[in-house]
Design brief:
There is one protein chain. Helix 1 runs parallel beside helix 2, helix 1 runs antiparallel to helix 3 (54-63) and helix 1 runs parallel beside helix 7. By secondary structure, the chain is α/β, with parallel strands linked by helices. The N and C termini lie close together (6 Å). It has eight helices and eight strands. Strands 1, 2, 3, 4, 5, 6, 7 and 8 form an eight-stranded mixed β-sheet that branches. The radius of gyration is 17 Å and the shape is globular.
């Protein structure tokens, strides 16, 4: 039996791409035995691990107040408390337990108090998701066990490492591809591109541990909080995944093997 793992990067609203990727693999008959994710990738991964269809996950993202994960009120006074999303998340994760998910899930977060990377593989699911998605400067750090936690993407935006010991085949899903540009307009665009370039460099190195990488072209040009592009993101990722499956011999061979 082949154990297939998938790693889902962070990327704000671009993380909706992971739902399109997961849906395409489901339709192709490929299932995952292990999932690892950061930030928006941890949310998409939690939906899948809980047995929520990716298309339903997309509707949850776009039609509920869960948007506050990816479209905070930046102009408001003070930082936003991400824990306000707890009641909403309990509707979809009533047991609030990583161990009780249908598929093993690893969530990457940053222990801001100690300055180190942490992987959540057990304990309260909602707090782990909130910690992994807690963008510094936007959300207040979340407190867990007397320690401050923030976005996992600071130290590991592509957490492939937890999958390496348990999986026979690893698929990577990255939603931050950048196209070449010949000019930059404004400091915001400059800083955004620089930040994505930094996390992409780390991802490129770690992608060597993936058997297949799904990376829809130009996704990194979409603003972290641009909810208007949500449907475009989902379908671009879906189509890119189907195209990859069609042309990738490793994936086609995988479809004919027994999967866990």
């Amino acid at each position: 039996m082949t154990k297939i793992g998938i790693v889902l990067s962070g990327g704000g609203i671009r993380g909706i791409a992971h739902l399109g990727v997961l849906k395409a693999f489901i339709n192709a008959g490929i299932r995952f035995s292990h999932i690892s994710g950061t930030s928006a990738g941890s949310i998409a991964g939690a939906f899948y691990a809980a047995g929520i269809d990716p298309e339903e996950g997309f509707n949850i993202f776009t039609k509920t107040k869960l948007l506050r994960f990816v479209r905070p009120a930046v102009g408001s006074l003070g930082l936003i408390n991400i824990e306000h999303t707890s009641d909403l998340l309990k509707e979809y994760f009533p047991e609030n337990s990583i161990e009780k998910l249908k598929i093993p899930l690893t969530i990457a977060a940053t222990n801001f108090s100690e300055g180190k990377l942490v992987y959540f593989t057990k304990g309260p699911l909602i707090q782990a998701i909130q910690a992994s998605s807690c963008i510094p400067g936007i959300f207040k750090p979340i407190m867990i066990g007397g320690q401050m936690y923030v976005d996992g993407g600071i130290l590991n935006n592509f957490p492939v490492e937890p999958l390496m010991k348990d999986c026979d085949f690893i698929i990577g899903s990255s939603c931050n591809h950048l196209k070449e540009v010949d000019k930059i307009t404004g400091i915001t665009a400059l800083m955004s591109r620089a930040g994505i370039m930094s996390i992409n460099k780390d991802m490129e190195q770690k992608s060597a541990f993936c058997d297949v990488l799904i990376e829809p072209k130009g996704m990194g040009e979409i603003s972290t909080f641009d909810m208007k592009k949500a449907e475009i993101i989902y379908w671009l990722a879906y189509e890119e995944t189907l195209k990859t499956i069609k042309h990738n011999e490793k994936l086609r061979a995988l479809m004919n093997k027994p999967q866990v």
